[in-house]
């Protein structure tokens, strides 16, 4: 009986993870194909009405979106979290009277840690940080895809654009933690087991925004994120790597060649521990100088490095592991 219960639990967790992966990889394309197909059927009026409404609703993603607690609290997200499992670790308080820009590292292939901890309530963010609302910012182009945009908005995801971040930090009150996966698509290309590389030396826009709006900076590291898939990392300068770079410039994300543990797509059951560091106090400066941006960027990099070394052993890494900031 116990064995049967365990196998049922494993199956439910696997299906929950599989739906996330299929949503991540294919749902956007499926929505575009569906809308295009319906245009040439007797149901053509439905996509026409939807697209007309979407035009009227065009700016909603950058104006606070349509977040729903119903979607964020789906039981499915808890099953997905338990598959790895994903764990949120709090190291300091975040005041609900302030706003924050949270930098999450590394990107990995699918940012499972960031999504589980900040895009859903499965890891207990609201309980860990009372009065603070996590707002995960993702690729802005995804909010132009019909139907798909409504789904990701309902989960409380936002475009990673200046207009969207400005709205969250200036027109949505206080207690907002805007989570940005700093390394983005470029960082995903270096994702491999045992690798702790973050792309950040030339990523300073988030620091400038923090200064402009007086939002404190918070470093976050997801230990185990890079261990969920096995990626074919193409050498720099190779035709394949140049093609990935070209695709990234055109589409905003990079096609990664990876495989999982089962069914090709299923990630390895490797624990992911997302550690939220201490906030770095940032003054509000309407027009920050480059020196100010560089200063707080350096403080952020040092805080992230310290966070990594303080928690690496408790998160399963050897003392010899180092973080590489490029």
Automatic annotation (TrEMBL):
Cellular-component GO terms for this entry: endoplasmic reticulum membrane
Localization (cell): Endoplasmic reticulum membrane
Top-level taxon: Eukaryota
Family matches, as InterPro entries: DAGAT
Chief place of localization: endoplasmic reticulum
Top-level enzyme category: transferase
Record key words, sorted: Acyltransferase, Endoplasmic reticulum, Lipid biosynthesis, Lipid metabolism, Membrane, Transferase, Transmembrane, Transmembrane helix
Transmembrane segments: 20-46
Biological process according to GO: lipid metabolic process
Annotated membrane topology: Multi-pass membrane protein
Pfam families referenced in this protein's UniProt entry, alphabetically: DAGAT
PROSITE patterns: PROKAR_LIPOPROTEIN (PS51257)
An annotated Gene Ontology molecular function: acyltransferase activity
EC number: 2.3.1.-
Record-stated family: Belongs to the diacylglycerol acyltransferase family.
Name of this chain's protein: Acyltransferase
Upper lineage: Eukaryota, Metazoa, Chordata, Craniata, Vertebrata
